[in-house]
Structures
1.
Amino acid sequence: MPTIPTILVVEDESIVAKDIQNTLIRLGYHVPATASSAVTAFDKLEEFKPDLVFLDIKLKGNVDGIQIAERIKTEYDIPVIFLTSFVDKNTLDRAKVTEPYAYLVKPYNEPDLQSAVEMALYKAKKDKEMKLDRNLYAKALGHLSEAVIITDKEGKIIFINQKAENILGYGSDSANGKLLASILTVESQKFIFRDPEDYAKLILKAQDISIENASLIVLNTGNSFKALFSSSPVKDEKGVLSGNAFVIRDSATAGSSSVPSTKQADTSIPFDNLVIQNSFFVKKGQMLVKVFLDNILWVQAMDNYVVIQTTSDQFIIHSTMRDLELKLPATKFLRVHRSYIISLDKVNVLDENTIVIADKTIPVGKSYKDAFMERLNFL
């Protein structure tokens, strides 16, 4: 059952505050309290931990709504909708810096209020998902010597690693949300990526391409250089396209380049087999597929490869069982045989020497049995 969003109303005109509260409750939201000052606002924030705050810009007292919004943004990361009547340009300029999710002009009507709430909650949800993705990418890709740029389906940047920051002349925060086409152009005899439409068409094709000796121009600095430019779609575990990964490497045939050398023996896209908190990417065919840890049933060794079996698919990657054992969280996974790692919460049936997960019977090795039995809960 979906959780009902909790909303806090911060408004020093008691009649207006009560009217907004009653309207929101009638629309199906949980509005446990209102606040009329900075002190009571932060008390209520701590008490109720709301999903959204309605905040009057011109609160009376020493601390106005904009100052409260600044603190909410930095300390609580809760979306804010500003309540406004007529305000001067300087006040609006100050308000914009806090990045409110919407403005609601007084006197308001119910449809406008409902639209503001729904849009703010939706945008906040998407922003949190994007922040999570950026954190996951940073953990997995931040250390790589190649320049890595992740975009959404429209070609807007979600993440760049340190190497890409150096090349593009943007920090990660300033690059996020910008169209890649506004920062970088790429040309070769076969491909031209100059406009947003060029990148969008490439991304929607969901194809893996590699361009040797491509001509790259960084638009904000004017720097140009030759490099190997590769593109690979990013899809979730269900095969739904979520964005694209672009990688810039030093080209062996490029001659002089402003990209520091990053030559490696293995030139495959460097996303395979990187565990990042609750998921990791593996390459399947020409796609990068996100595999969620909660969906893994078992891992099986096959010569120099391992097979990752999920609830809906199977992935074969070049790795060792020891490498995966170190990367997979020990709270969820356990090695029970020299050839098998299992997801503990997926065990259906077991006896002294075997485990059944789904329809698969998995042996338990003698040297692993004691550790396995210690991890089980018995009544």
2.
Amino acid sequence: MTKPQLLNSNGNAQAIALSERVYWIGALDPNLRTFDIILKTANGTSYNAYLIKGSHGVAVIDTVKENFAEDFFARLESVARYEDISVIVLNHLEPDHTGALPELMRRAPHAQLYISQKAQTMLKALLKQEDLLYTSVLTGDCVSLGDRSLYFLHTPYLHWPDTQCTYLPEEKILFSGDVFGCHFCDSRLFNDEVGDFRFSFEYYYAHIMRPFKDHVNRALELIEPLLPLTKIAPAHGPILRDQPQRYVQRYRELSQSTLQSEVPDGEKTLLIFYLSSYGNTRRMAEAIYEGAMSIPQVRVSLYDLEGSELTPFVDLIEGADGIVLGTPTINGDAVKPVWDMLSSLVVINLKAKLGGVFGSYGWTGEAVRMVEDRLRGLKLRVPVPGLRIKLIPTEEELKLCHHFGQQLAQELVGLRHNKIIDIADLG
């Protein structure tokens, strides 16, 4: 196969054919090194937009970042006239997909705009116009271009509430939005031509899609019945024309919990992490571990953060039912590795998992309360008040730790009785 010619003989940007009726009219951004502040882009990225020709109209799917609009319009004009554009579809409303939209609507005023139902308020906020004309769509809705048709798939939170996919059944092409995309810029465009982008594909999933695994699984239930596809055309990264089913399968693999195969049905998992300066928090951790272990049907694991890398624990925590963090208080704060662990958890869904905190202290012991607040902010439930012990725990205090572990484990399996709160506890 030959490399796509992104420029014509006059040096102007031109469209690239995906088929006789479908074209890529996007733009390349090879020099971008950080996307949305948090994502590193060693190869830059692409802003993929597409054009479909039907017997009764032309459709444009997504646009590009505003400062790349010139390439977008040049490519569009190389294959279509503005007066022929009858449909504009936005699969996602972030500025890197909608930057050229206002000018496109000005140049193609007769085109009907299609967005997901959840995109309506976002569109008005984006364009700052109250009199916008658009059609909102859900799964199964369709727009006709004559001998070509576009069906919409409602796939919210991948990775914004407004996201959707668009399917061209006559050619079995899925315009997937951010799903199956990645930040990888290569002028050869197609997955069987570009460089090795596997790392970018996995990295993108981990940081963009992983927090929404439940929504990924729901989207796959809509997409998998469409297989086999001839192409997956995402909003970023290579167009997947060689074995596109592999990428659907990979999403299915990534969206399943690997821990499920290790833990029997009916058994709950509780992970205890700690860091200890002088051994006091460690003694507490060991007693909490023993207490939790005394409750049947709870598999308990104990980890010292001082001797571990944090990254592998993210997978464990994602599949676990509860986590407990132990930290001493140093300079009025929790220790850095604990905060590092907490910050690493934003890429997974923690909602409704059990959380607990404990630790030793020398002066005021703020760390336990601070970490508890962060766990609640991450949507964990913290039903057992955190346990603080001053300096070296006594035998009686270690019994409190043992009971603390029992309470957490009982909470996981539904055996803990709700405590009647004493007013003194609120002081």
3.
Amino acid sequence: MKNKNLQTEIDASYLYQKLAEHEPDMTIANVFRQMSDIEKGHAEAFAKSYNVSFENLMQPSWRAKTLNTIGKIFGYGYVLGVLMDTEKSIANAVISTKNKYKKEITGTETNHVKILRSILEKETKVTGPQLSRFEKSHRSVGGNAIRAAVLGGNDGLVSNFSLVMGIAGATAGQEGVLLAGLAGLLAGALSMALGEWISVTSSRELYENQMQIEMEELETNPEGEMKELALIYFAKGIPEKQAQEMATEIMKDKGHAHEILVKEELGINAEELKGSAFEAAVYSFIFFSIGAVIPVLPFIFLSGMQAILISVSASAIGLFLIGAAITLFTGKNVWYSGFRQVFFGLAAAAITFGIGKLIGVSVTG
């Protein structure tokens, strides 16, 4: 556990440095370099407390190197998204441990997203557009897109693997398995795609309706909305007089006032509403299909027990790779996560195979 904590800090330092190297905006790049130095300082402190040679442990792990490769291919917004999730997990773990041992929560345990924000606000050279761009970046699909790919593939593989094994158990791997597998792939992928489309569309429609209501309130009761703005800033610790002056200035531009009210009062980021529901549906369809096709492929060329064994082997490999990929977000041991995924996937398939076998015997008997 000690070496794991130390490695986590080393990896974070390495990844923030990579973000800095690939960030075209020099001010934001400087923020990432500062974060890298902070993480390096944490690692050195851990090494000292553990009596470990820090210099010998400076190499990033395979996980960090893999994330860097993903950044090179898909853009470093993905890496930042994963880093933010990691920071939140670390903070939650620290708070949980302190609660367990009844230690004081000082407030310093909060995640480094707040540190990033603090650095940006204190950096005198940071402009409004830069701050907006940074916030958009760390809220972007980032790690979520990679996670969606991994989990979508897992859903497709596990569900279709179980279906294929159930049919194979009933038919001894003969006729019907391929057809059932392809039907399961298509039905599942379409269902996932439709579900994703509905989810994105309904969320956007809900937010757009709330934004419209806010605009109507702004037009019909500008004085009330100005008071709300002033209260929002006052609640953030800004002196009352200054908060009122800021609200008055903002209300001179109705569009800007609406944007701030939507963000501060409703907690809605307008940039996030620009995501395409169709694009989300297509990605969901593709990711599910990639996982679902693995247990079906052997039955295209073979049949019987040989096809069943190859399907199980291929699916087990796919399950292990998915479990290993999940560690990009969790930071858990790759072997533990991989074999855990294999165990549960094979258990689900074994159950459906057994049920299929019973049904097959019952029908033929």
